[in-house]
Amino acid sequence: MKLTDKRFWIFEGFTIVYAIAMLMLVIALSGKSFSVDFLLIFVGGSCISGAITWLLGNSKHWFAFGLIHEGVMLFMIVTSLWISAIIYNQFDSIAIAIILYTMTAFVAISIIPTLALAYFGHGLFQKCKEKTDAFSLGDIGINGIAYSRNRALKIAEIYYHSNRAILGGDVYKMENGRITLTLDSWYCDKISSESPSEYVRRCYIVTTDYISKYPNNANFLFGFVVDAQD
C-alpha cells in the first residue's frame, strides 16, 4: 500500500461513508444520539480498520476481505469497552454482559454493510494489484511489458489457450523503482516433427517451468517474445 495509491484513498473515502451510514442506522434503530467525540472515534476506527484490511487483503476472497474488516472493527470496539471498564473500575458481570451484547448487536447490524463494502474494496484492490503486476519496458528502450511471477504465469496460460507460441523471454529486475535487464532468458525452438499445437503446448510448458523454478523474488519480472498472429 502506498499513500500515492488513489484506489486506497477511494476505499478509505467509502469506509468513512460506511461508518457514517452505520451510525445513522444505529441512531434510527435505537433512537439514541451520540457525542461528537464518539462519532469521531468511530469514524477514525473505521478508517484504521479499512487500512489494516487493505494491507491484509492480499490474495483474499472478497468475503474474507469483509471478515477481516469486521473482525478488526469488532476487536477495536471490544478493546475500547474493556479498557473503559478497567479504567473506571467497573469490570464486573454487568460490564461483561454489556460487552457481549455490544458485540452481538454490532455484528447483527454491520455484517451485511461490511460485506458490501468489502466487495467494492476488494474490486479496487484487485485492480490495483493487476496494475502493479505489469510494468512498461519503454524506459529501457524495449517495446513491451514485464510481469511479476504470478502474473507472468497467468499471461502464459492466456497465450496457450489463444494458441500462440511463446518463443522465449527475458528476465528483468526492479531496483529502486527502475527496471534493469538481467542476463537470464529462455527460448523454445520449434522441432520440425511437431505440429503447431504441439509446439504451442511445449512452449507453454518450457515457459511456465522456467518461471516457476526461477528464484521467487518480487523484484524479478518476466517479459515474453511470442509468435506473431497471422
UniProtKB/TrEMBL annotation:
Transmembrane domains' residue ranges: 9-30, 36-56, 63-88, 94-121
InterPro entries attached to this UniProt entry: Imm40
Domain Immunity protein: 136-226
Pfam families: Imm40
Keyword annotations: Membrane, Transmembrane, Transmembrane helix
Top-level taxonomic group: Bacteria
Protein name, UniProt field: Immunity protein 40 domain-containing protein
